[in-house]
Specification:
Layout (H helix, E strand, L loop, with lengths): L1 H15 L1 E14 L4 E4 L10 E12 H10 L4 E4 L13 H23 L5 E12 L4 H4 L7 E5 L2 E2 L3 H9 L6 E11 L5 E12 L1 E2 L16 E2 L2 E10 L3 E4 L10 H12 L10 E3 L2 E2 L5 E2 L4 H11 L3 E5 L3 H5 L7 E5 L2 H10 L13
Parallel strand pairs: 3-14, 14-17, 17-18
Antiparallel strand pairs: 1-3, 1-4, 2-13, 5-6, 5-12, 6-7, 6-8, 8-9, 10-11, 15-16
């Protein structure tokens, strides 16, 4: 009896003991065109069947790790170190995913408009914080994922490298004043900026071996404990939003681009073909690699799509689990997708109204 109780207690303890492993499993395929809202331009009344597809990311307990390994199937295990930089807490994963989705929606809007002949203006807009290390000057100052830095010690910041070059002139121990447009995320992932504020930071000595990717700056002596990306401002008469509640990450970029085009085009972008797409999208329409492609393929088949566009380098992952009814197509650009769709009989997309 005592042995049985001890074993039961051990199972409970193992089941609640968190590990540094995460599981990626098939998520859902979601029709995107109905989620797209547009103002400032005429839209179509049709909806192509274009799916974005996500995955579930779950931190595993030791027992769940063992059980899932035994179960097998469409599941991928990744260590925490593959998802987070050293010193960055796992509590920032949701905010990072929502920031990536916000960036992806912005890039998808620009790429879609340009593909239809519109001329959105794109300009640099500060440095956006993508991560904050624990116990760092940035953490002590209350900076967070999504905050936009527009000035550092009086120097105007228009990009990530602007911030790096400004930081290169600062010595450890210095007090720094930053102008920051703070960001908040709703429970479903909508980013809102709350207005500029001035923040005081106390720079510390940079960790050994810290290098810079920016031209003209090989290394840094001062350290704030943040990751950054270029901020971008888009000016256009067309305003687009996509209701991607509770979905994070950049991998829906291609699907959102096609869906935005579908709403603005007089003809259905995918014709009568049920398609799905995964891949990041850049402002110029380049398609980039994503994660969890095998798991996404399972979700795509469940939804009934017959064509799945994936980044070229990840075709093999999708083919390994795709059934005979699903055609996997590798692409590296939006133009390749549109060309392939025309090859399948979909009409050429044309803006409902004259682009401007």
């Amino acid at each position: 009896m005592l042995v049985a109780l001890a074993l039961a207690a051990l199972v409970v303890i193992l089941g609640l003991w968190p590990t540094s492993q995460y599981a990626i499993t098939p998520g859902q395929a979601t029709l995107v065109p109905p989620l797209v809202s547009v103002s400032g331009a005429s839209t179509s009344h049709h909806h192509s069947r274009i799916y974005l597809v996500d995955v579930y990311l779950e931190r595993l307990s030791l027992l769940a790790d063992v059980v899932d390994h035994l179960r097998g199937g469409a599941i991928q295990f990744v260590p925490e170190s593959a998802l987070l930089s050293p010193g960055v807490p796992a509590s920032q994963l949701d905010a990072q995913g929502f920031l990536q989705m916000s960036d992806s929606q912005q890039a998808a809007t620009v790429a879609a408009l340009r593909a239809l002949g519109w001329h959105p203006e794109v300009s640099p807009d500060g440095a956006v914080i993508t991560e904050v290390a624990s116990n760092s000057p940035a953490a002590s100052a209350g900076l967070a994922v999504g905050d936009l830095v527009s000035a550092l010690d009086g120097t105007h910041i228009t990009s990530g490298c602007d911030l790096v070059r400004a930081l290169a002139r600062i010595h450890p121990g210095s007090e720094i004043t930053a102008t920051v447009d703070a960001a908040t995320f709703s429970p479903t992932g909508v980013l809102t900026r709350t207005g500029e504020r001035r923040v005081t930071l106390h720079a510390v000595r940079a960790p050994a071996g810290l290098t810079s990717p920016c031209p003209g700056v090989s290394s840094l002596s001062a350290y704030l404990g943040i990751g950054i990306e270029d901020g971008v401002r888009v000016t256009s008469p067309v305003r687009v939003s996509v209701d991607t509640a509770n979905i994070g990450g950049p991998s829906a970029g291609l699907a959102m681009t096609l869906s935005i085009m579908d709403r603005l085009s007089s003809t259905p972008v995918a014709g009568s073909i049920p398609i799905a797409a995964t891949g990041t999208i850049s402002l110029d329409g380049a398609v980039g690699e994503v994660g969890g492609v095998a798991e996404k393929t399972v979700a795509v088949e469940r939804a009934g799509a017959t064509v799945f566009f994936v980044p070229t380098a990840e075709v093999a992952q999708a083919d390994a689990v795709a059934g005979p009814s699903l055609r996997v197509v590798g692409v590296s650009s939006l133009e390749q997708v549109l060309t392939y769709l025309r090859h399948l009989g979909a009409p050429h997309p044309t803006s409902v109204e004259t682009p401007r």
